[in-house]
Amino acid sequence: MTSATLHSDATRQQADAWRRQTSLRRFYTALGVGLLLVAMFATMWFADEANAGHFFDRLPHILDFLSWLVPKDWNDVWRALFDIASPSDKGTQEFNFPLGRVYIWGGFYIPEYFELMLTTVNVALVSTFIGFVFAVPFSFIAARNLTPSPTLRLVIKRFMELLRAFPEIVIAGLFAAIVSIGPVAAIIAIGLHSIGALGKLFYEINENIDMRPEEGLRAVGANWFERVRFADLPQVLPNFMSYTLLRIEINVRISTIMGAVGGGGIGEELKLAISRGFGAKTLALVLLLFITIFVVDQFSAWLRRKLVGEQAFLMSA
Amino acid sequence: MSTITADEIRAIETRHPQIFQRPAYKRFWPVLLIAGTVLYLGYALWFFSLPQVLRESHWERLPLFLSQWISYDLQPEFRLDQPEITPKYPRFSALGEHPNPDWVIKNPDGTYTVQIDGDAKSVTFDKTRAAITANGVTVPIVLTGGKSVITGTVPDWVTVHDDEIVAKLGFVGEVRVTVDRVKVRKRFLGWANFVFDTRSPFFGKPYSEVISLIVSGPELKPGTSNLALAADNFWNNAQWQHGDVWTKLLQTIVMAFLGTLLGGIVAFPLAFFAARNITPSGVLSQVLKRFFDFMRSVDMLIWALFFTRAFGPGPLAGSAAIFFTEIGTLGKTYSEALENIDDKPREGVLSTGANEILVQRYGVLPEVVPVFISQTLYQWESNTRGATIIGAVGAGGIGLKLWEAMRTNSNWANVFYMVLLTLLVVFIFDNISNFLRRRLSRTLHDYNRLQAERG
Q: pLDDT tens digit string along A142-179?
């Protein structure tokens, strides 16, 4: 009898404690959501106020704006893509497709947009290569378990953080004044950023390796380079490759944007086509860009799955 | 010491064929990869015509630009063909309307001395002769023969042109002498007029005086308190544009916040219909997943350009661009997180007869909410960085301002000011997001531990 009362007392106390805790938690959740909503509406208002056109004024005209996108003749999209003369060509910039042809050899040409897309992809690939080449040695120096000197580690880490956080657009602008505006400035900017971004991911991988092969090599008298080469590198290389592929995906996007601000490549042409309202050209460019990014993403995902298995899909959260 | 015999080597080789007899493609793929990379780099060298670009580049500008990030210069000019020598400063120079710097000295004998680095680096001149002192040497110049001529030896820091003599004095500046004028460039470390510009009544006053004016001085502009006047002068500083820069920076922050939040709100319900283990319809799941891929692949730039055209330039266009991209990115990550959940809590709730919504609320949500929040915070962090670039195509924020300041190649101090502010913002938001995610992962960790204790 007594034990039963005690038991139910304890149960009631527990239930009360649980209820208190839950109601407090509900209160905090509601408060958090409320604050988030207030912040959302405040920032919405702010963004609308600061914008050149206001949301509700412009909303009815969205469809008009989309109407220029629809070309009079859908075949013009293909003609724009492959630089084939259009019957609508009256000497204006909107339909001057064949002018962009890049002749390679005799009558054989690469269509302008493919050439520009190639530039953008090449910028992304070369800058990822630069990032990889510098990030690998930096990551070995920055890893706690591989480098005994804390000063050296700290310097490299801070340097990589700076490279990562520094706005790419400023580096691009600075080098545009030195090596002339165009893809080379974009390569330098994206490459420097990639060093920082890849370096951080790489040294975190390095710090999580199995140290037993390293100890084995140390026991037979291997020096630092030999230990890194034969104990560390084989463990981390698949992950390095996987992150580099992910970086290629990101860099293709960044190099497109860089193009729009003068970095060469497809971004500039796209910006021009959209701002002047060239429907057929815009659709051709968007189609090409969409397919390229989609193919790069899928190819990289496939390769990453081969390299590190399902782990490839874990985002760095 | 025992040595290994050939037979033993063979025995080891046959015992471990997976190590010693790997197929050729496995043994040679690193070599092939490196050869391919080298070939590709050669092609890229040709594609970007890199040798030519590097030959035509101006690397000597780099230290000059970098020094301009943290310094400014003053360029007084002295006409020698006027009846009287008077210093002239360019319009809008950092010294204001009535410059009288103490490093330009009118000597009692009628000559002028400009101290570029104290007396160690200076130039003294009148209408007939000039003398440049630097590096322990004084170079006398005669200006009477219709041409500026150096009498004596020419040191290597002086260049003699047809009609002009240029003395480069390193970081601190330079002197250019012709028959009819002396031009000086003196460089100062720091940012000129960072607080008040030359039009402000507080310009040129020491900080103690400014503070005493604000606290107890007479009203400099009738009808306005000195504090309000000082704040207004600072906010509207013509050279540094603090007000505009900070507003634009706020726009960048708002773009990232609003775009990510709205993207999350829209992606949240869609992800449940895209997750194959939750949605009943395989077709719907496939359609939604392709939709997410589409939103991601169209790319933030294209969205930004479209919305800039639709809504006009500004943060609304930028927010909308980030919003549309984030629907794709967050939708994909959310649905992947949902597909990786443990199905047992769901089945438990389902077995009590709960309806479909309650099953999601109590059987699925507790498991995925920390993951969702963590992914969203991560995207928020990366969008804060990305919003800077998007701005440069017209989507609002600090990006466009940075780009415009850089285009003239003359405003590097302003660029550096904005870069510092951007770095500060990125740093702060990284830390907020990291802190929140650490708290979350602790919650997750506690949850897992409790689960383990209960068995």
A: 988 888 788 999 999 999 999 988 888 889 988 988 88
CA dist., res. B249 & res. B252, Å (int):
5
Quote helix, strand, coil % in chain B, to nearest 5: 60, 15, 30
Q: Which pLDDT score, from 0 to 100, does residue B291 have?
A: 93
Give Dmax over CA atoms of chain A in angstroms: 104
Chain B partners within 8 Å of A170 (Cβ): 402, 406, 415, 419
Tell me which CATH homologous superfamily contains domain B242-454.
MetI-like (1.10.3720.10)
User: Is the pLDDT assigned to residue A311 strictly greater than 70?
Assistant: no
Chain A residues within an 8 Å CB radius of B37 = 129
Q: Report the share of chain A in percent with pLDDT over 90.
A: 32
Contact assignment for A46 to B402 by CB distance below 8 Å: no
Q: What is the mean pLDDT of chain B?
A: 86
Question: For residues A185 and A179, what is the distance between their CA atoms, to the nearest angstrom?
Answer: 7
What residue ranges of chain B are covered by domains with CATH 1.10.3720.10? 242-454
pLDDT band at A1 (very low <50, low <70, confident <90, very high): very low
pLDDT one-digit tens code per residue, B203-222: 877 888 888 888 887 777 77
SS3 B279: coil
**pLDDT at residue number B391:** 87
Helix residue spans in A143-265 (DSSP H):
150-165, 168-179, 183-206, 212-219, 224-227, 233-258
Q: Which pLDDT score is estimated for B21?
A: 77
Q: Please indicate whether, in this complex, the C-beta atoms of B407 and A173 are within 8 angstroms of each other.
A: yes
Instruction: Please answer yes or no on whether A174 and B312 come within 8 Å at the CB atom.
Output: no
Distance CA A113, CA A94 (A): 14
Least confident residue range of A169-173, B96-100, B148-152, B366-370? B96-100
Helices of type H across chain A: 2-50, 55-58, 62-67, 75-82, 112-142, 150-165, 168-179, 183-206, 212-219, 224-227, 233-258, 266-276, 279-308
DSSP β-bridge partners for residue B131: B124, B140
Of A170, A257, A271, the CB nearest to B406: A170
Nearest CA in chain A to B375: A317
CB B332 within 8 A of CB B294: no
In this prediction, residue B368 carries a pLDDT of 87
- Residues B5 and B302: their CA atoms lie apart, in Å, by 68
Residues of B in contact with A182 (CB under 8 A): 53
One DSSP character per residue, B41-65 reads HHHHHHHTTHHHHHHT--TTHHHHH
pLDDT at site B444? 63
The residue type of B164 is E
B311, B323, B362, B434: best to mutate for the A interface, most A CBs within 10 A: B311
pTM over 0.90? The answer is no
Q: At B132, phi and psi to the nearest 5?
A: -100, 125
The length of chain B, given as a count of residues: 455
- Indicate the SS3 state at residue B77: strand
Residue of B nearest to A197 (CA): B382
Q: Which residue of A has its CA nearest to B392?
A: A261
Residue B213 pLDDT: 84
Please give the residue of chain A at the shortest CA–CA distance from B426.
A165
Residue B79, beta-bridge partner list:
B181
d(CA B240, CA B418): 10
Mean pLDDT of A17-36: 91
Indicate which of A18, A21, A43, A303 best probes the interface with B, i.e. most B CBs within 10 Å of its own CB: A43
Query: Rounded distance, CA B71 to CA B68, Å?
Result: 5
